[in-house]
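We were asked to recover a plausible sequence for a given structure. The inputs and outputs are reproduced exactly as logged, with field labels preserved.

PROBLEM: sequence recovery
POSITIONS: 114
GIVEN STRUCTURE:
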């Protein structure tokens, strides 16, 4: 798990990984721009293999970096002609092993517009 540290005067602020999120402390806005978590990287790799025609793919750990809950946005022509529930079933099937260790998963699927 990645962590961010900021120095603010004599105070050092530590926070678990935030994905381009703002943190407000004493009226000042700080930003932590860290790389993807291991869980995000693993899920992206799996989905790229399962959906090689995906034109857009974004995976965000929304559990603060602990890997308990993820949000997935995927756009692929492989979803064409399938209802939303069928698209989500395909994503769930691709992540079958990873889902067992998760608390929750948000899935957003779409078909490219052109």
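RECOVERED SEQUENCE:
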């Amino acid at each position: 798990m990645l962590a961010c540290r900021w120095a603010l005067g004599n105070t050092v602020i530590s926070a678990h990984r935030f994905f381009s999120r703002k943190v407000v402390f004493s009226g000042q806005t700080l930003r932590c721009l860290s790389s993807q978590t291991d869980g995000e990287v693993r899920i992206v790799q799996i989905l790229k293999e399962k959906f090689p025609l995906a034109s857009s793919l974004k995976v965000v750990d929304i559990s603060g970096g602990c890997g308990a809950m993820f949000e997935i946005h995927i756009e692929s022509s492989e979803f064409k002609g399938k209802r939303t529930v069928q698209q989500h079933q395909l994503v769930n099937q691709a992540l079958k092993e990873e889902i067992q260790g998760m608390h929750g998963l948000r899935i957003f699927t779409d078909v490219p517009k052109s």
